[in-house]
Amino acid sequence: MIIRLINILTKEEVIYMDIEDIPAEVRWKIATKASNMASVAQMNAFEEVAGKEAANQMEDIIMGEGGKQAGELAIQLGLPANNAIETSEAWGIVGTIMLGPEIKSEVVEADEDHIVDRITGCAMLNAHQELGVPLTGLAEGCQAYNTNAVEAINPKYTQHFAKRMCAGDEFCESHVELKK
Fold first, then answer.
1. H or E segment at 114?
2. Rounded to whole angstroms, what are the CA distances from 113 to 67, 149, 173, 179?
3. What is the topology classification, in CATH, of domain 27-178?
4. Where are the domains of the chain?
5. Are 177 and 116 in contact (CB under 8 A)?
6. What is the pLDDT of residues 96-149, one digit of tens each?
7. What's the pTM?
């Protein structure tokens, strides 16, 4: 419920509202954007203090752990992951929950052992660009997150990128495939 009151000292209108007055989708977009921006700002600060190499190592560790947690979330949600297609779909759902609706992708080719997705929207790339932060380390941290997420969702599968927007490509090309 939104309540409008007039502050008797300043004569200004004061609006009080409850968190439930904000639609869940709006809260989710705000939370994921804030989280992405904070992550990018944190990694940039690490680089300024510790240097590129140390910051990249920290980002790989942090993002890798985030990927493992994404896998745990997929399991908690009971998302099916019996083959490459289901594993990729579970990874996409969890990634969207955690990173927000800016993640945009489409399936290019798929069978039970291998799926190729074209990713055209990336929340982390957008956060880097919005903050004006160099893309240093983004590709490696992203790979650590996504490989760990896919392998946590289904240990029989792995993930790698053949193309990356953060490296100047028009889109990211992701491959989820049965481990060899």
1. strand 114-121
2. 21, 17, 16, 9
3. Muramoyl-pentapeptide Carboxypeptidase; domain 2 (3.30.1380)
4. 27-178
5. no
6. 999 999 999 999 999 999 999 999 999 999 999 999 999 988 999 999 999 999
7. 0.86
